[in-house]
Structure formats: C-alpha cells, structure tokens
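Input sequence (477 aa), recorded before submission:
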Amino acid sequence: MKLIFERGNEGQALCLMPACDVPEVTLEGFEREGKLYLPHVSENELSRHYTEIAKRVHGVNDGFYPLGSCTMKYNPKVNEEAAALPGFVGVHPLQGDKNSQGCLEVLYKIEESLAEISGMDNVTLQPAAGAHGEFTGLLLIKSYLESIGATNRKKIIVPDSAHGTNPASAVMCGFEIVNIPSGADGCVDLEALSGAVGEDTAGLMLTNPNTVGVFDKNILEITKIVHDAGGLCYYDGANLNAVMGVVRPGDMGFDCIHFNLHKTFSTPHGGGGPGSGPVGCKAFLAPFLPGIRVNKKPCGCYTSGKAEKSFGEVKAFGGNFLVVVKALTYILTLGKEGIPEAAKNAVLNANYMQACLKDDFDLAYDVICMHEFVLTLDKFHKETGISALDLAKGLLDHGIHPPTMYFPLIVHEALMIEPTETEPKEMLDEAVAVFKELKKLAYENPQALHDAPVKTPVRRLDDVRAARTPVLRYNFE
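Predicted structure, token format:
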C-alpha cells in the first residue's frame, strides 16, 4: 500500500478549504526553516487513499470484537449526532459561563450521573483516559494524605493480576509498589493483604470484577483491611461495564474511582483515542479535585470554578468535552433501567460463551464469570504446539478480532474473551463454532495455524524487527 506522500504528482490538488476571511499576518522569527512536505493529490486520489485504509482495518463495524478487558463494544450513532450539534462543536472554553450554559449543564448532568452510578460524591471530567484517571486519583490520595500530615504513607498495594498501568501510575505519583499474589481463585489473598498493610500504606488499587472476570466475594473485607490500616481504596474502573447500575464501587468501600467513558459508556477509543477518564471520589477528597467544578444555582443557571485546595490541572479546561457529550447521550438513552440491563447482558453473554467453550478448552478459573472469562491454552499448547498467539491469528482468517492475549500474566497461554452486551446469540454461536473449528485444525494440521493469517491484507509481522528497527519517519529525500 502506498503512503499518501507516494500518491499523486507536483501540481495536483483539490480545493476543500474556504477562502481566508481574516487578515493574513506573518509572525517574524517563526518561519519554517525547511521545506514543507505536503502530498499533492486530487480529491479522487485522496478518497481512494482513505477507502483503501478503511478496508485494511478491523473494528466493531466489521465483525466480532471480543477484546477482553477493554469493552470494545458497539457505539450507537446517536452519540455521534449529539456530539456534532453546532452548540457543542462551536463552543470555546473561554467564552464565559453566561454563553456556555448548555455545555455547563452537560458537565453538571454527567458528573451527577457518574456519581450516582459509582456511589461517589463528586466527579472531575478532566482526565483524558483511563491511565490518566489513575494518575489523577492517586494525586487526590497523595494530596489528602499530605493535608493530614501522613507523609509517611508511601506504599500502594497492587495485586499481581492488576492492569500494568496501576503500578506505573502509582510510581509516577511518587509512591512505592507492594505487589501481593492472588489466591487460587484468582482473587485477592486476604492473608497476603493483611500482611502487606501497615503504617506506611497509602492505599490499594483494585478492580472488581478483577482481570480474570471474577467478582471478589471478599470485597468488603478487603477494603476494611486497608481502611483499618489507615489507607485509602482506589477502584480501577476498567471493568465497570459488568456491574454498572447493579452494584456501586462506593458501596464496596472505595474512596475514588476512574471511569473509562471510552469503554463503559460507549464512546469510541480505537486507534489511540480520543478517550476520557473521569475520576469520582468521596466528599473528603473533593477539595483537591482538578478541573472545572460546575455548580447549579437556585435560579437554575450554572457557574464554574475551581476546587478549594485543587492540586492543579491534568489537562486543559474540562477535558475531552465531545467525548463527554457522547457518554451523556448514552447514559440518557439507556436510563436507569437500561444501564443495569446492559451490564447484566454483558455478564450473560460472557457466561454463555464460556459454557459453550469449557468442554473444548481449559478455563483458567472454572466459575461463573462476570463480563469476561479467561482460557488457558497451556495444556493445549503442549499437546499441539499451537500457542494462544497462533489461535488468535487463526481467528483473523474468520473475520474475528483476537481477544486479549497473554493477559493477565498470572495465567499461562491466556486468551481473555469479552463478548460485551451488544452481541446477539447468533454471533456468539458463530464465534464458538470458529473456536471449535480451530481446535480441530490444531490437532489435524497445526502448520495451517502456524501460517495464519493468510486472508488478511498483512500476514504475520516480524515482531522482533518491528521492535528493534522501527521506521518512525518517512524519508522525503
């Protein structure tokens, strides 16, 4: 496939930009030193270029997308229509509260909704993504501990099944990491947790249901152990899709949480963004929140300001506003009844698919799962030579995006499957049939899976070469 710079010739062009309607100004001292490289293509060539790119990608609009731990579900198009309304697209963050009442109402309503869904008291919409939300939540904890003089509390407890961003975020905030093992059931080992907490404990980072798709039955005891030691509890909201509207992290004993609007609340995050990772917290942490704080006056109008002891800013203004608009549209569309129904259907779909596959593949944890379940292909790999990676590549030839591979790290040859609530039973049955077909192929003709994929635009890539000698810049010379 040609790059856009390899298409067309000097002199070819298209006219999409309107004529300049303001005076042109030359900024002295800011001139470009070198030549500006822009592609010279016609509108026809430009259209073909992007059509060709579209044909080479796979997303939820192309086929089954069971990407575990990420909730890559269908995004209703009404969200996009709402976010494209002129009053939202054309607003400027500096035009003042008086001329931004509709936008401030959006911020107020979604903060109110997210607080209710999570069992928190306040929310900031400023963080741009999940890991950014983790960073923000941990800064809240750090600011609070410093405000009460508990500067000795430097350690964050993280289970070995946690998302990799958890310890990274904690370290970026200046904390030390205490890693604790999971029990045989994939949940927190209470004895290990009790032994890890102490006077230097700042908090615990945990998601529930956890990364193996299991709801930890000891969650109230877990948060109590941490609180009794003087620490705070942080909820990683990556798996909130399984429990939204059913149980609330705040009621489990968590003090703050980040949401993934670009996962749970149906705003696209494929291809790197844009995302949104709001952070909710209990009232005692609210004075330290970053970003715009929106208040509703008795007259019904809205005002914005800053939190009393805000630790600063983590992004400009109110965050990725149009992503927030999409999320609020989704929440209002589903309503109080639809949100828990979506969560229950996600759990139902995962359990149905798990039940259909458990006789053909080994489950990492043979229990009723939540939104996702994990297969371990360890024995299968030893018997056939076919790894989790090989099976995932085989799925591509059947139009199915691979699930998460080799995560969580505590499961050998792991495939984490999350069908989400937006898939019908017919699609799940088709996917199950493909998994079983690939299992049969692994025993009868394993080389076919070693060679897979063969029907995709790009075959297997050289991962080592890509990692060691990446081509990051086009050579125009």
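Checked by second reader. The chain has three domains: 1-56, 78-334, 337-465.
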